[in-house]
Design a protein that fits this description.
4 helices, disordered C terminus, 131 residues, single chain, disordered N terminus, globular, alpha+beta
Length: 131
């Protein structure tokens, strides 16, 4: 079991904001996120995402779809296949009408996690109580 102390070892980049939530075919949400200055990644890296407006204590891993050379933004393409991702898609259906600022928190692991570790984190209380 991975405990909450594992989360302490993650590099937290603090609050940043979603600039755009673009709804694409096949229920895909394209998030354009303001990239924190100290946020560095390589192709194929993933981030853990928390969007308080969707679920205050849940973190979900997503592969970064933008190239590292884009210095001002970070892209995520998220397909709606589960409860959280469906809430995200529906949120941006309404958000696009209001045009308000949406807060997001990002964590980039220092070391790559195995698929088994990610699945364990997704089902553990540590993910649901991390802030």
């Amino acid at each position: 079991r991975i405990t909450r102390s594992k989360w302490v070892k993650l590099v937290q980049y603090g609050r940043t904001y979603i600039r755009e939530g673009i709804l694409l075919p096949s229920k895909v949400t394209h998030l354009v996120i303001s990239r924190p200055p100290a946020f560095h990644f390589q192709p194929g890296d993933y981030v853990f995402v928390q969007i308080p407006e969707i679920a205050k204590y849940e973190w979900h891993p997503f592969t970064i779809s933008s190239c590292p050379e884009q210095s001002d933004v970070l892209w995520l393409h998220i397909r709606s296949v589960g409860t959280w991702t469906n809430r995200l898609y529906k949120f941006f259906e309404k958000y696009n009408e209001r045009h308000q600022k949406v807060s997001i928190r990002l964590n980039l692991p220092k070391e790559p996690l195995s698929r088994a570790a990610i699945e364990e984190l997704a089902g553990s209380k540590a993910v649901q109580t991390a802030t």
